[in-house]
Specification:
This protein is an alpha+beta fold. The protein folds into two domains: about 10-120, Zincin-like; about 125-185, no CATH class. About 35% of the residues lie in helices and about 15% in strands. It contains seven helices and six strands. The chain has helices at about 10-20, 55-60, 65-80, 90-100, 115-125, 170-175, 180-185; strands spanning about 30-35, 40-45, 50-55, 125-135, 140, 160-165. The strands form two sheets. It has a three-stranded mixed β-sheet with strand order 1-3-2. A three-stranded antiparallel β-sheet has the order 5-4-6, with helices on one face. Helix 1 (about 10-20) packs across helix 3 (about 65-80) and helix 3 crosses helix 4 (about 90-100). The termini are far apart. It binds zinc ion (2 copies). One zinc ion binds near residues 71, 75 and 88.
Length: about 190
């Protein structure tokens, strides 16, 4: 199901109304959708008076949009009313949330596990390593080259290492290498 989220300028009007309702004199606030946010529903930049909201997250839980917008607007209101030396989610912020009719919840409960693969992909290994013991020929396929004691003969650091892309084809190529091949590759 596709949901149509409100345009940023509509949300900006709502945020300004919230600030006015809290009796904040300066109600100027900028609201923007930011597609690069991953698991954060929204964030507020206090000095710039700017709010960023996550369209992917709020697209799957549009019912939470008013709460998230109020959460971030209350950060800006608390900053303008009470200054910078207050707890971000302390009593000032909480009382503004209650005044606007929201429970002062600090985190959202929108499922986010599937929004993490971008970060996971960056961490994924690019290479796989074949470690061959020169003494006994023991072979280990490893996600990272590890040295130390050979599991076959217990010799220390007598390894030759070959690397291939961390794919099925890369692993197969490494598996086919004989000790002679690996020695030849190392000159
Ligand atoms: Zn917050
Ligand atoms: Zn060995």
């Amino acid at each position: 199901m596709r949901v149509t989220l409100p345009a940023a300028d509509e949300l900006q009007r709502r945020a300004a109304e919230l600030l006015a309702g809290w009796r904040v004199r300066d109600t100027a606030v900028l609201v923007q959708w930011n597609e690069r946010l991953t698991t954060t529903a929204g964030r507020a930049f206090l000095r710039g008076g700017r709010i960023e909201l996550n369209p992917v997250l709020l697209g799957r839980a549009p019912d939470q949009l008013p709460m998230v917008l109020t959460h971030e607007a209350a950060h800006i209101a608390a900053f303008r009313l009470f200054g910078a030396n207050i707890q971000p989610h302390g009593r000032h912020w909480r009382s503004l949330m209650r005044l606007a009719g929201h429970e002062p919840a600090v985190t959202h409960d929108i499922p986010v596990d599937d929004l993490r693969p971008a970060a996971k992909a960056r961490r994924r290994r690019r290479y796989v390593y074949l470690r061959v013991c020169e003494r006994c020929g023991d072979r280990q396929l490893q996600p990272a080259p590890r040295y130390g004691r050979c599991v076959g003969c217990e010799a220390r650091d007598s390894f030759l290492v070959m690397k291939a892309p961390a794919t099925a084809a890369g692993e197969a190529a490494l598996s086919r290498l004989t000790l002679a091949d690996v020695r030849a590759a190392h000159g």
